[in-house]
Amino acid sequence: MSFHWPLDPAELFGERYPQMVNTGVPAADVDAVRAAITDMWPDAPGGWVHEWSRLAARYAEEGRHDLAVLAYGWAKFPTLADDAKRAALANQLTQYRLAAPGFGVDFDRQVLEVPYRDTTTAVPVHVLAPAGLPADAPVLLASGGVDTWKMDLHAMFVAAAVRLGVRVLAFDIAGTGESAIPMTSDGGAQVVRGLIGHARTLGNGVVAHLGISMGGHYSARSGLAGEVDAAVVLGGPVEAAFTGTGLSHFGMDGIVGNALGFDQRPARDELSARLATFSLRPLLDQDLNAPMLIVNGADDVHVPQHDTLVFQGRRDTDVHLIPGTGHCAVTKLPEVIPMMFDWFEHTLETIAARAHS
Predict the structure, then answer these.
(1) 81-101, pLDDT tens digit by residue?
(2) What whole-number distance in Å separates Cα of residue 271 and Cα of residue 252?
(3) Which of 27, 63, 77, 305 is 20 to 30 A off residue 279, Cα-Cα?
(4) CA distance 341 to 23
(5) Which domains does the chain have, with CATH numbers?
């Protein structure tokens, strides 16, 4: 199920331009696509998916499969609301596989069957590991959010694998990307628990979880519940964001509405009722959490400061609200990513030391 909704591409470029260039698309090419796009939905000249796909096809013809992955990633952005977007995702996957020999790490694509409700659901995952990684290395479960998915965040996940000496298991959260199910509070969490269980069989049994944006909701959930050994939450909504006040910017109501499985733009009360079920207040009221790092930008228009600051004072929890940047501190990632990796490194070393003491 999916739907279109009024969305101004100029507004999206205004918000996402730093992300586009910081993740590797040459600024001159972003500027050219920005100038060419006049509408969000038509698969025709001037349309978002058409113009980004043209750029991606050019990169592919030039053998720059890495850049084609990024461009097709923006072509399918922000959600798979029609066949053209779904085709862009399929093309992104094709280019990703072609780019794999240049990843600099071992790459394995698997499709796992994990428990979901009374049956199972297929979850495609990408496993990234430094060459020669010992079999008993920890595993890092990693995902993006509702509009930025596992292939879009490839560079960050490779950097984590190399820097931390871990096996990264990258996936798309429920309702997004290659997921076959809608995003629900219980179903999405159930899928993550299934992935955690699988991840524990891949290395030494230690599993950490990195979640970005809505993916951070799920890493907050797994960390608070003590289901993983360590969790980092970057820009994750946990409580106040689900009051319905945070979805009025940059088309986020339509993006989230698609992820939730609506087949037409939901009324505000419908959306609010569904989102209310995602509040992590019951887990926040408990004291079970694994070591956690909570990070976000102080100027986030999607996730209120409360959803970061609510973690202050918890045991084994570090909290950083970064000034001068917005959602997921995207304009300050060059300082935030090393912070996250340093924290993971220290925490994993502590876990290993305890295991051998």
Answers:
(1) 999 999 999 999 999 999 999
(2) 11
(3) 77
(4) 18
(5) 9-99 (1.20.1440), 105-356 (3.40.50.1820)
